[in-house]
Amino acid sequence: MSQPDKVSALSQTDTSLARVLEDLIDVLITRGVIQFTDLPEAAQAKLLERRETRASLNDRLQLFPTGDDNDLV
User: Fold this and answer.
1) Domain boundaries of the chain, sorted by first residue
2) Is the pTM of this model over 0.70?
3) What span, in angstroms and rounded, lies between the C-alpha atoms of 33 and 44?
4) pLDDT digit string, tens, across residues 4-32
């Protein structure tokens, strides 16, 4: 594998690893192992930004309401 191919392969895993780390942080916070405020302010800001972005994407991609069946047309 050439050097550019190796760099590309590594870059492709960065996104999935970032998601794994976000999930791990969420689990640690939920279980009380760490507090969100224990993280550096820069990390808090990045995590909040990603959460907001994911939430807005979820809202846009949701094709059917998640409430009761009365919401369906």
Assistant:
1) 10-59
2) no
3) 16
4) 888 888 888 888 898 899 999 999 999 99
